[in-house]
Design brief:
The chain is an alpha+beta fold. The chain has a domain at 32-167: NADH Oxidase. 31% of the residues lie in helices and 21% in strands. It is built from seven helices and nine strands; from the N terminus they run E-E-H-E-H-E-H-H-E-E-E-H-E-H-E-H. It has helices at residues 17-20, 34-45, 66-73, 77-83, 112-129, 142-148, 174-179, and strands at residues 4-5, 8-9, 27-28, 56-62, 88-95, 97-98, 107-108, 133-137, 155-166. Strands 3, 4, 5, 8 and 9 form a five-stranded antiparallel beta sheet that branches. A hairpin with a 2-residue loop joins strand 1 and strand 2 (8-9). Helix 2 (34-45) runs antiparallel to helix 5 (112-129). The longest helix has 18 residues, at 112-129. The two termini are 26 Å apart. The relative contact order is 0.22. The structure holds flavin mononucleotide (FMN). The site of flavin mononucleotide has 10 residues, from strand 8. Flavin mononucleotide (FMN) is lined by residues 22-23, 79, 136-139, 159, 182-183.
Length: 200
């Protein structure tokens, strides 16, 4: 038998950290110590990218600050209603263009969001390893975020992230309480094909 953690059964002998990480919406009212937050960001630092360009940028705000209120304002209400209790709200940005060696004019880095995704995944796994949780939020107003967070046009705003300590689910509205559990995944046969591309 391979690991079963959080009710998630692996089909192959994967590290438990992948099953332990999930995305709760209930957050306890606990501030994240600086050293923990820095370690979470440090994990993102070590994400890989072509030519080691590292185009990601993390813009964050702590709970109970004017910045947090400003960040929360751009998150759609269906997410803000739970994300408002996070200890930290962050946005994962990525620089869209880069200068290719030998050229003088910047051009689109078509993988900028892919690298930012790796940085997010490292952040999320490190949070979980430390006993904290990170929940990605795609549901926010892009235009409002760019304006209110003063993010220049050369950066793409990929996702918001709510980071905190998992809390008791009874603090959530009933519809979210019902969904507050780890999910499972398709088996690898669903998304892996050898030699010839086969849709699931
Ligand atoms: C890029 C991205 C955007 C997401 N956006 C939202 C969102 O707007 N609201 C939400 O409640 N969850 C959001 N999620 C969380 C996903 O629903 C969740 O990761 C997925 O259901 C798998 O569950 P797990 O993270 O608990 O394993 C997002 C996740 C990712 C990676």
């Amino acid at each position: 038998m391979f690991p079963t953690i959080n009710g998630r059964q692996a089909d192959h002998p994967v590290s438990g950290i992948f099953l332990e990480r999930w995305s709760p919406r209930a957050f306890a009212p606990e501030a994240i110590p600086d050293d923990v937050l820095h370690t979470i960001f440090e994990a993102s630092r070590w994400a890989p990218s072509a030519t080691n360009i590292q185009p990601w940028h993390i813009l964050f705000a702590r709970q109970d600050t004017p910045d947090f209120a400003r960040f929360l304002e751009v998150i759609y209400p269906r997410n803000a209603r739970w994300a408002e209790r996070a200890s930290v709200l962050a946005f994962i940005l990525s620089k869209k263009e880069r200068i290719v060696q030998g050229e003088s004019v910047p051009s689109l880095n078509r993988n900028h969001a892919f690298y930012a995704g790796a940085a997010w995944a490292y952040l999320a796994l490190q949070s979980s390893i430390l006993g904290w949780v990170a929940h990605a939020i795609g549901g926010f107003d892009q235009d409002a975020a760019r304006q209110k967070l003063d993010i220049s046009d050369d950066y793409h705003i990929n996702i918001a992230v709510a980071i905190g300590r998992q809390g008791d689910k009874t603090m959530l509205p009933p519809d979210l309480q019902a969904r507050e559990a780890p999910t499972t995944r398709h088996p690898i046969s669903h998304f892996v094909s050898e030699g010839v591309f086969r849709k699931p």
